[in-house]
Amino acid sequence: MKWDIFCSVVDNFGDIGVTWRLARQLVAEHGLHVRLWVDDVAAFARICPQASPDASEQLQLGVEVRHWHSQWQPVEPANVVIEAFACELPATYVRAITESKRRILWLNLEYLSAEDWVSGCHGLPSLQSGGVQKYFFFPGFTESTGGLLREAGLLTQRQDFVANEQARQQFLRSIGVEPIAGARLMSLFTYESAGLSSWLDVLEQDSQCTQLLVPEGRILADLGRWLAVDDLKAGDSHRRGALQINILPFIEQRQYDQLLWCCDFNAVRGEDSFLRAQWAGRPLLWHIYQQEEGAHWEKMQAFLSLYCRDLSPLAGAAITSFWQAWSAQESVAEPWQAVLLYWDELSAHAEKWCEQQAEYQDLATTLVQFQQNWL
């Protein structure tokens, strides 16, 4: 059974991060032949270091990775075609789908959302020109959606890793971090933020030491301004008051998972890191991608309403205020102090949320089941 997944890289690494994980899982756990079509192979090579950023086609971890560019060469469509995040397929490929004598399942894999309307739209068909149906497939946080991307045994791997202090210490040292005994360990991988300096001010003056691990990314310019340091780079280390900052190299997906597992709190961005932070079972900040006319606010609030349902009102208000202030580019000093007041409750809730979401079927499996039912 052959599957084609098309990915147009929009948000640096969120789109390719999701589709690369999905492609690997479909191959490894479901025995499928998967072609991953990517329009920015260089972005793919950042999260898959062994990949060539210039190759037009290559085999990586069982996935056939193809460069998708303007000079499209016609190919025979696969049995299942996934149009990830509403990217526009090549016109000749669409024509081949409509003219094929084989039944081809065409899916539009949508962005992850907790909004109420998602359940009602999941799995609905849309008639395309040529009489072919395209189905909307929505990942989500309820059993009436397509579920979440989660590899088999992921939570067990995380639990084993967290329980093994030596493994955690070795991993941190392998990425250039010397752990500080007793420090609160946190990761920072967000978009640019005007509120960052207010957060760092609080951490600098805190009574407890914080070790902040910052992978290379868009937040480095703001961080450099706060430190009064130009051109921060991987391997740099800076100490101010109770705050120790370590700049990390850009790391591949499995290492990023382990980084999240090591930390007590994770500030993340984009769909891939947002979901992986949830599987880490730790309190988190999601810096949602800003959309026109404030559409991102509804999406963020929908998740917070669901996520905070089992929290006490005060703890829910604390994490909500922190997220809102960060995305509004406002000071997060007071909201962060509120988060610290409810730290134990938020930590226990993050683990419980992770376990609850793991009770639902994972995204790759629901995709395969949808295709089998369609047949």
What's the layout of helices and strands?
Layout: E1 2-7, H1 14-30, E2 33-38, H2 41-47, E3 57-60, E4 63-67, E5 80-84, H3 91-99, E6 105-109, H4 117-121, E7 125-127, E8 133-137, H5 154-163, H6 165-174, E9 184-188, H7 196-205, E10 210-215, H8 220-227, E11 237-240, E12 243-248, H9 253-262, E13 265-269, H10 270-279, E14 284-287, H11 295-307, H12 313-327, H13 333-341, H14 343-357, H15 363-374
Parallel strand pairs: 1-2, 1-5, 2-4, 5-6, 6-8, 9-10, 9-13, 10-12, 13-14
Antiparallel strand pairs: 3-4, 7-8, 11-12
Helix pairs in contact: 1-10, 1-15, 12-13
**Average pLDDT over all residues:** 95
- The CATH class of the largest domain is Alpha Beta
Shape category: globular
Tally of strands: 14
Give the name of the CATH superfamily of the largest domain.
Glycogen Phosphorylase B
CA radius of gyration is: 21 Å
Summing up helix and strand content along with how strands pair, one would put the structural category as: alpha/beta
How far do the termini sit from each other? 12 Å
Largest sheet: 8 strands, mixed
Q: Identify the CATH architecture of the largest domain.
A: 3-Layer(aba) Sandwich
Numbering strands along the chain, what is their spatial order in the largest sheet?
3-4-2-1-5-6-8-7
Strand/helix succession: EHEHEEEHEHEEHHEHEHEEHEHEHHHHH
How much strand?
A: 15-25%
The CATH topology of the largest domain is given as: Rossmann fold
What portion of residues is helical? 40-55%
Low-confidence stretches: none
Q: Number of helix segments?
A: 15
Number of spatially distinct domains: 2
